[in-house]
Design brief:
globular; Glyoxalase-like_dom; Glyoxalase-like domain-containing protein; six-stranded mixed beta sheet; 7 helices; Glyas_Bleomycin-R_OHBP_Dase; eight-stranded mixed β-barrel; alpha+beta; 2,3-Dihydroxybiphenyl 1,2-Dioxygenase, domain 1
Length: 282
């Protein structure tokens, strides 16, 4: 499978009940926020910020937080489009990760597809299958101090069972027109320990299915994987793996953990801008 068959899907942000029911002016001034619904099982609910390129931000609120909430899937999701199934994609990823040598392994594999869904406010049942990152060896990735929330350093996959347009109605102008002119996810940055950069490059190469562009600027090493958006083949975003280089980076890893450190939103009218993603990485 080539990287052109793996797409950006969405970013998961956890909101407190107050944040969820009364979003901040920073959000409402910039984005159109729509109701998603309640997830199957009734443990959580969501609202969505949907972009014209088919990507979106999920604002998640726990109705009843499960005991294993810290072991949830990663904070952002990738996807494939039909006819590639969750089962096909899982087989590809596991083969790629199994081929990594023990020396470079981060102790990560992926679950069998897990069925999920939610009911929209219109009463439609939306169904999908999740591939969840499974962490078999925490200490091979980084010292425990770098995982204060549990490990969330690999993305999960969300594969549509019902038509994607039901989960992400990016065909509706009223949904995707935002005051900020936002049209999609331009970049997701993943901050990792400096001595584990190559291991994470290898990991994400296996997950995405292609090699990244490597660069180093002012002593900062990074790798960028370019992926298309599911609703616009001309729209592309990047996953950037960046090695920590400063005391501030080290503090971030110890407080927030290895994983997402920055989110860049694409805007046709205002230019790309940063989303304060770290405020919602509990």
């Amino acid at each position: 499978m080539s990287s052109q068959q793996v797409f950006l899907d969405h970013l998961l942000l956890q909101f407190s009940t107050v944040q969820f029911e009364t979003p901040s002016a920073w959000l409402t001034d910039r984005f159109t926020i729509v109701e998603g619904g309640t997830h199957a099982g009734g443990l959580s609910r969501n609202k969505l910020i949907i972009f014209a390129d088919g990507t979106y931000l999920e604002l998640l609120n726990w109705i009843k937080r499960p005991d294993n909430w810290r072991d949830r899937p990663g904070d952002f999701a990738l996807t494939t489009l039909k006819p590639i199934t969750a089962e096909d994609n899982r087989d590809r990823i596991v083969r790629a990760l199994d081929s990594i040598s023990d020396e470079g392994s981060l102790g990560i594999t992926y679950s069998q597809p897990i069925e999920g869904g939610r009911k929209t406010l219109q009463g439609d049942n939306v169904r999908w299958k999740i591939l969840k990152a499974i962490y078999t060896d925490t200490m091979s990735a980084a010292p425990e101090r770098y995982h204060p929330r549990g490990r969330t350093d690999a993305p999960f996959f969300c594969h549509d069972v019902t038509d994607r347009i039901f989960r992400v109605p990016y065909n509706l102008p009223s949904v995707v027109n935002h005051p900020s002119g936002a049209t999609g996810i331009s970049g997701i940055e993943v901050l990792v320990p400096k001595n584990k950069l190559q291991s994470y490059i290898t990991l994400y190469t296996g997950i995405v299915g292609s090699s990244p562009q490597l660069s180093e600027t002012n002593g900062e090493s990074r790798a960028e994987f370019e992926l298309r958006a599911p609703g616009s083949l001309d729209s592309r975003g990047i996953i950037r793996i960046r090695a920590a280089k400063s005391e501030e980076d080290e503090r971030y890893l110890q407080v927030k953990g290895v994983g997402i450190s920055s989110l860049i939103i694409r805007s046709e009218s205002a230019g790309d801008f940063l989303f304060p993603v770290s405020d919602y990485l509990l």
